[in-house]
Amino acid sequence: MRTCGATPGGPSLDGIDIKTQSVIQGVVLSTSAGDGVPNGSAITNAHVRLLDSSGEFTAEVPTNQEGQFRFFAAPGTWTLVVLAPGARKEIQVVATKGVPLDLVIELS
Amino acid sequence: MSRETSLVTADWVAQNLNNPKVVLVEVDEDTTLYDQGHIEGAITFHWRNDLQDGLIRDLISKEKFEALLSKSGISNDTTVILYGGNNNWFATYAFWYFKVYGHADVRLLDGGRKRWELDARPFVTAVPTRTATRYVAKERDNSIRAFRDEVIAAISKVNIVDVRSPQEFSGELAAPAHLPQEGGQIKGHIPTAKNIPWSKAANEDGTFKSEAELTALYQGAGVDLAKDTIAYCRIGERSAFSWFVLHELLGVNNVKNYDGSWTEYGSLVGVPVALGA
């Protein structure tokens, strides 16, 4: 999937009361297009794990058909572990209530 | 009851795709996954539509289980291989379910969909047609199923293992962080329960940890495996995962899954409840 100018990121936030939620979401993209464009093809068979600040597993979701994922986390520091065939990436993030975190995660 | 009799690897499944004695059954939390793609030849059971009574809160009856397996082309001597998404949560629930009704040879694909996907193995969308059978189930084996009165009586007496996340155990959350916050009427845990989240028994790729690691996990948390054990979670799926670890991988006989779990216990009037870590 090429997003071709659309803002890359997680699923639509329509209908979600972001004032009361600490949303961590995003899209997992392949850099295999090799053109330096950050919005390469969506990785639809990735798994995103959410670990708390002590490294304990909290939740896991597969990416959807658009390569997107979403968590409703508590405010604070979290680690995302993204797993896909032949690839693994860890990312530290800070979730804040009222300001959804929208990530573009690239895997090579 | 051992890794050899209860688990198969992705390689084993790949080598047995055309084995007529084997039937693959996918059981997912996200019931749209099967239609998006599944292992070749696999059928699917819907955890709610196929495996819940629908009128009363209970497993389906023996007669309905027989009808489900018969129309699915599963015979009493079939080797049933269960697998699913989300680290096999609902597949292990189905495994426990098959054991409740006495199926002889049921096994789990170690790592489920995730291991299969991370290996970049193929999925298909074709739905197989299977010839109907006449399946005969056994009477329910309640030696692996706990009910509410037994759980209340077990407080302070037998091992009670709460396999939910620490946040659900402490009473901060009512459900896993990726799901709507619904469940029991109140939050908390059963007094004297030990919190050993299901996730501690799994590797990152969804496969089970080794028997030595699993034994150390439970013993390290102060669980005396010589005593009776009851596992629970929110709706009985994650606790089926931990039941599988204890009963099947570690060969502990006296383990029950409390499938009423916190949605039942947390809605009972007058029972004791604990909060905090």
Biggest interface, chains and residues, is: A-B, 21 and 24 residues
Number of DSSP-assigned strands of chain B: 9
- CATH class placement of chain A: Mainly Beta
CATH superfamily of the largest domain in chain B: Rhodanese-like domain
Q: Encode the helix/strand succession of chain A as letters.
A: EEEEEEE
Q: Which outline of chain B best applies?
A: globular
What is the count of helical runs of chain B? 11
* Strand count of chain A: 7
Give average pLDDT of chain B, whole number: 95
What level of helicity do the residues of chain A show? Answer: under 10%
Content-based structural category of chain B: alpha/beta
- Unreliable stretches of chain A (pLDDT < 50, length at least 5) are 1-6
Please give the largest β-sheet of chain B: 5 strands, parallel
Q: CATH superfamily of chain A, please?
A: Immunoglobulins
CATH topology of chain A: Immunoglobulin-like
Strand content of chain A: over 45%
Assembly of the depicted chains: heterodimer
Q: What is the count of helical runs of chain A?
A: 0
Number of domains of chain A: 1
Strand order of the largest sheet of chain A: 3-2-5-6
- Would you identify the regions of chain B where 5 or more consecutive residues have pLDDT less than 50? none
